[in-house]
Amino acid sequence: MASTSVKEVRRIREAVATHFGATRQSVPESPVAFASECLGFTLDDWQTEVLEEENPRKILLAGRQVGKSTLAGILACHKALSSPGSTVLLTAPSERQAKLLMRKVSQFYRMAGYPLAANSERKTGLELSNGSIVEAVPAVERTTRGYSVDLLICDEAAAVPDADYFAILPALIATRGEQLLLSTARGKRGFYFETYTSASEKNSAGWYEKTIRSDQVPDRIHAEDLEAFRKSMPAEFFEQEFLCRFLDTEGSLFSYEDIHAALEAGENIEAIKDDDIW
Ligand SMILES: Nc1ncnc2c1ncn2[C@@H]1O[C@H](COP(=O)(O)OP(=O)(O)OP(=O)(O)O)[C@@H](O)[C@H]1O
Ligand SMILES: [Mg+2]
């Protein structure tokens, strides 16, 4: 019964759209034009910059609530609509987070006025009549194997274990697919931290990198509210959540800076021999 009514709704929507000439609208080639012309959405300058960037590998480090998932949702929706037959994989550390991102994609598809019909619309995915699919799955190895991916979006990437991330990557090799990694800072370890560090320090690792702190979007995140949060949280967590600061991994004996400084100084740290331990 439920599936019949969903089909019925889809059929009516198609019929109405066809009647009023609203179906199969052309979608602008640029995601920025898609956001403004089809969604009536005013992007922040930093969102425009990321969407205009042509490097297929993008890494974004951002404070809380700056609008990173919104940006990812627009990019995913645009890719599926504008590149027939494409596969967009939305991943996040948990199924709930992946579904939240999918919700944004569905919201933008609706806001655009359903420019293409959908063969299937679910909480975890969307299949369009142009052959494109968007799938939202948790970034765990057993769910991500089997896809050939044109655009991989990994939300809250710093919380995805290395083994799971590296198991997804081969899905991009045959398609030469794009990647967007986005996250709030977490510990100084793992693929996200390493990728961000090499991209931002050397700027030659083949990645486009963008950092945006919560205090850099004053239209939505007000200075006085940030100040109130600063006073109510331990400083390091405030800096992690809002100011893009990577904390030393909890429980580690030495800070990342100390270890790095020791290695840079070329110190020869000899392994402790069993004999030295009493
Ligand atoms: N350009 C924009 N104009 C107006 N509102 C926006 C814009 N970008 C994002 N927002 C709004 O800001 C809020 C936060 O957006 P979003 O969820 O994308 O942020 P986030 O960085 O992913 O947050 P979190 O760190 O909690 O995951 C949402 O209400 C979203 O609709
Ligand atoms: Mg988010």
Structure explained in plain terms:
Helix content is 42%, strand content 15%. With 278 residues, it is an alpha/beta fold. An 8-stranded mixed beta sheet has the order 3-4-5-2-6-7-1-8, with helices on both faces. Strand 6, helix 7 (162-168) and strand 7 (178-183) form a beta-alpha-beta unit. It is globular and about 55 Å long. The N and C termini lie far apart (73 Å).
Beta-strand level of the residues, as a percent range? 15-25%
Helix count from the secondary structure assignment: 11
Report the radius of gyration as a whole number of Å: 22 Å
Output the CATH topology: Rossmann fold
N to C succession of SSEs: HHHEHEHEEEHEHEHEHHH
Give every kind of bound small molecule, once each.
adenosine-5'-triphosphate, magnesium ion
Report the principal-axis shape.
globular
| Major beta sheet summary | 8 strands, mixed
Order of neighbouring strands in the sheet with most strands: 3-4-5-2-6-7-1-8
Number of domains: 1
Q: Structural class, from secondary structure content?
A: alpha/beta
Q: Could you tell me the mean pLDDT?
A: 86
What's the CATH architecture name? 3-Layer(aba) Sandwich
Helix content: 40-55%
Extract low-pLDDT stretches. 17-23, 266-278
